[in-house]
Amino acid sequence: MDVERPTRRRRKQLKRAITILSVIALSGGATVALGDSSPIGPLPAGPVSSIAAQRGELVAVALPQRSGGRVWRVARPINDNVLHQVSEANVGASVVIVFRARHAGATTVSLALTKSDNSTTALESRRFQVRVR
Known about the structure:
Elements: H1 8-27, E1 32-33, E2 48-53, E3 58-64, E4 71-74, E5 83-91, E6 94-101, E7 105-114, E8 124-132
Parallel strand pairs: 1-4, 2-8
Antiparallel strand pairs: 3-6, 4-7, 5-6, 7-8
């Protein structure tokens, strides 16, 4: 019996999908507040993940939902030339944030869990170091 081997393109697509799903599974999700929120002070130690992407690819991160009105917020500026947020969605017990890799370079996505959108104290943090080729 002949078994068809996946093409190089198909293998790359599968690798990308597995990478995105791994980030989602390992990180968890919740609502992320952006924009005109209060600045966030020092971040507590938290998990750091590395992600490699190619220009034009989508990069997804997920955060564990928290109760009691606590929200995940972007804690530090993200280099928009490298990574641009395109969407956010609640997926099961997670909030998944999707970015598009725009240009080659590196940036860090720093997220903080706060009591509210106005709180400046980070209760938890997650960092994603993203390198775009």
